[in-house]
Specification:
Blueprint: E1 3-7, E2 10-13, E3 18-25, E4 33-39, E5 46-52, E6 58-60, E7 68-73, E8 78-83, E9 92-99, E10 112-113, E11 117-122
Parallel strand pairs: 2-11
Antiparallel strand pairs: 1-3, 3-8, 4-5, 4-9, 5-6, 7-8, 9-10, 9-11
């Protein structure tokens, strides 16, 4: 079983940057697609970005593709989300997720989740 742990959240001013990390423990990730989602109170989880671990193919939500970059370090089984030009609307809890069923922006396809890390962007 893969165990996911996020880190790197915090408070940043509008226009600033943060880098989130998600480390996977317990299994090789070669057959997994890893993803980032975010959620604000009262709203559904929103897809942000994903990466097929073996190929490195990346997928982005339109809302963030010009500002966010997903990356991986295969030696550390760690996935990153570099977030630039942050806006107050990016404030949310950011979750790392994994699926062995291939890419999807639908959070229901992801059976493995981290506990989340809070990102707060002040105006």
């Amino acid at each position: 079983q893969v165990h996911l742990v996020e880190s790197g959240g915090g408070l940043v001013q509008s226009g600033g940057s943060l880098r989130l990390s998600c480390t996977a423990y317990g299994r090789y990730l070669s057959s997994y697609t890893m993803a980032w989602f975010r959620q604000t109170p009262g709203k559904e989880r929103e897809f942000i970005a994903a990466m097929a671990w073996a190929s490195g193919k990346r997928y982005y939500a339109v809302a963030v593709e010009e500002r966010f970059t997903i990356a991986r370090d295969t030696t550390k089984t760690t996935m990153y989300l570099q977030m630039n030009s942050l806006e107050p609307e990016d404030t949310a809890v950011y979750y790392c997720a994994a699926t062995s069923d291939g890419y999807s922006p639908d959070d229901r396809q992801y059976g493995l989740w981290g506990r989340g890390t809070q990102v707060t962007v002040s105006s």
